[in-house]
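EI: anyone free to look at a 169-residue chain?
SC: sure, send it
EI:
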Amino acid sequence: MSAPPPLQIREANAHLAAVHRRAAELEARLDAAECTVRAQAERLARHDQQLRAALDELGRTKDREIAALQEQLLTSEATVHSLQAAVHQRDKLIGQLQPRAELLQDICRRRSPLAGLLAALAEAERLGPLPASDHGHPLAGGPSSPLANSTGEKGDRDHLKLAVFGTTV
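SC: here you go
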């Protein structure tokens, strides 16, 4: 066999060198791509870890808020029950005081006539009792017998006493 011509050897060597460069270039690109993929995977893992931590914290915050709201709900329910009991007590008191209020309103409506009656009684008290006189001689123009509480029957007059005006006011 004969040796290939030098030109062919140079072309073959150039071709091998080009293939070798291309292989080295592809290996470098592969290494760079692997580094990029590893870096992206690490970034994604860190980001995933951060998201998991944030999600866990969000869950804990939610649980704390739910617990606080449940406690607030229990407190509010206790306050509502307390206020309902107070309203019930006040309604009961109003029920007890209502008849008295109506009585006081009735008294207020009758105040003027009562004031007139009290003034008349005070005037009668100011006049005092009748002067002592002979019971056998009635006053001129007056009743035939002294003022007494009687039913008008003859038998009633013996045991009755003279009436005297007076008030306890």
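EI: Helices lie at 6-109, 111-127.
SC: 👍
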